[in-house]
Specification:
The protein is an all-alpha fold and 502 residues long. It has one domain. The chain is built from 20 helices and no strands. The protein is globular.
């Protein structure tokens, strides 16, 4: 692909990613407020009960999850028949899954050892049925790079969830606030989806073989994904108890902010951009390496920073009910940073239609993680589980980068060559913050903790930015993540200056 053709694509991808990140930032702000309020109103056991019920549901969801959105995005000659077939198959899948979840709710509750899970799963089943009615036009928005409307839908849905959940939590102070708040938001968001992405669905099974052929290995992939993502919740719930699971679940919400709200929104635009370069493997390799280096430069300092100030975050944001959560926040923040690299690899393999290879590889990684987590929790409790989580993340990172290097033809050192300055800056930040922590006696109360949090955050930001800029200049200011971030910042300042003059 020529440079002339690639430039508009790059701008579309960046614009799409910007819309998605802005939307996810708004969602995260709402989520943070919601989580902090709920943490004050509910007990860790309430969070643990909901997490255990949703982990049980996730297994059934993975078996039937189709992944048709990815297929529609990468299909070159799309027709209305593709959209109608995907909508129909998804509706059938959601209805059958809802019936299965509702029919086995009592059995799942007995298996997980808590009768309260049964009624919760009935409400979850109702939400699954509503998911089958969502507008398929939302996928078309992603395909057409209209991420402004897609982000609007996501933010509005979260806003509805936020309002409903908080209102119910204040009234009931029960875990039912989380379940019924989510259900109410799904119901209210349905007409909004059709307003933003109009598509009058017509039941159709026109080319069902095309979709089912895609979803075969997709089901295996989804099973591996749920094993990796929900395995820890099931293990903690059974071996360590619901309060520990509640702490782990809340720690995940806090620690994964950089990945879930900055990195995750870029996946759909990057997938669409990678798909445009599928026929030029060299250009695709450059795009992959450059995009991952830029993303890492943004999320690495935030993830490491969260880990460094996790004790203060626990005291300031969560309160005394959540004492002992900060080690989980620190560990999960670093694990999520390593795990994030696997998502781009999945996109690359999807473009080349290597579903079998991806599914089998993911099964191997997920099985390794689950075995390590089970052994760690069984022998050493929560500390052992967190250590096993970190070990499996490092192993997975090395494995996935080896696979994508083979697929795209670049060396194993290509990505580290683009990210080493970010890693060195993060190390300098960690050294500085830990030194200040050791020299600063810890005081009791909320205000001293808040002062420490602000001081550590300011020092960490200054050290990271200063170190990375210095290293970049010492290397001759080469093209890379630093230059792109600097250009983005200068461009934003220039637009702000023009607006003030106007």
């Amino acid at each position: 692909m020529s440079a002339v053709a690639a430039a508009p694509l790059g701008r579309r991808v960046m614009a799409g990613a910007a819309f998605m990140m802005a939307g996810r930032l708004a969602i995260r702000c709402l989520s943070i407020v919601s989580t902090l309020v709920l943490a004050r109103l509910l007990m860790p056991e309430d969070f643990g009960l909901v997490a255990l019920a949703l982990a049980a549901f996730a297994i059934a969801d993975a078996v039937t999850n189709t992944g048709y959105a990815t297929l529609l995005i990468r299909t070159p000659d799309i027709t209305r028949g593709h959209y109608d077939t995907a909508w129909t198959l998804n509706l059938l899948r959601c209805l059958l899954l809802a019936l299965a979840v509702a029919g086995t709710a009592s059995w799942q509750a007995a298996l997980l050892g808590d009768a309260r899970i049964g009624p919760v799963l009935l409400a979850v089943a109702a939400g699954v049925a509503l998911d089958g009615l969502v507008s398929i036009g939302l996928v078309r928005l992603q395909r057409e790079f209209r991420f402004d409307r897609f982000a609007t839908y996501q933010v509005a849905t979260r806003l509805l969830n936020f309002g409903a959940t908080l209102a119910l939590a204040v009234l009931w102070q029960s875990y039912w606030a989380i379940i019924l708040g989510t259900l109410a938001a799904k119901l209210l968001a349905l007409p909004l989806g059709y307003a933003l992405a109009p598509h009058r669905p017509r039941p159709s099974l026109w080319n069902w073989r095309y979709f089912l052929g895609f979803s075969g290995w997709g089901t295996v992939f989804n099973m591996a994904m749920v094993m990796e993502m929900q395995g820890a919740s099931l293990i903690i719930g059974r071996l360590l108890g619901l309060p520990a699971l509640g702490q782990y679940n809340l720690a995940q919400q806090v620690a994964t902010v950089p990945v879930s709200e900055i990195a995750a929104p870029t996946r759909a635009p990057l997938l669409a951009g990678y798909a445009e370069l599928a026929r030029d493997r060299a250009a695709l390799a450059r795009s992959y390496l450059d995009s991952q280096a830029l993303l890492f430069a943004v999320i690495c300092p935030i993830s490491v920073g969260i880990a460094l100030v996790s004790p203060e975050l626990e005291r300031v944001a969560l309160g005394p009910r959540w004492e002992g959560t900060w080690p989980m926040i620190a560990a999960i923040a670093l694990v999520a940073l390593a795990d994030n690299f696997s998502n781009a690899v999945f996109s690359i393999f999807a473009i080349f239609e290597r579903y079998r290879d991806t599914a089998l590889a993911f099964c191997l990684v997920a099985a390794l993680r689950t075995a390590l987590l089970l052994g760690g929790a069984w022998w050493w409790g929560m500390e052992g589980l967190l250590g096993a989580l970190a070990l499996s993340a490092l192993a997975g990172l090395a494995f996935w980068q080896w696979l994508v290097a083979r697929a795209l033809g670049h060396g194993l050192g290509a990505l580290p060559a683009r990210t080493w300055r970010t890693l060195a800056a993060a190390a300098a930040m960690a050294a500085g913050v830990l030194a200040l922590r050791a020299a600063w006696p810890e005081g009791a109360g909320l205000l001293p903790a808040l002062g420490r949090l602000l001081a550590f955050a300011a020092l960490g930001a200054a050290l990271h930015l200063g170190t990375q800029f210095l290293l970049w200049r010492l290397c001759g200011a080469p093209p890379g993540a630093e230059r792109r971030l600097a250009n983005l910042a200068l461009g934003a300042l220039e637009r702000l200056r023009r607006r003030r003059k106007a």
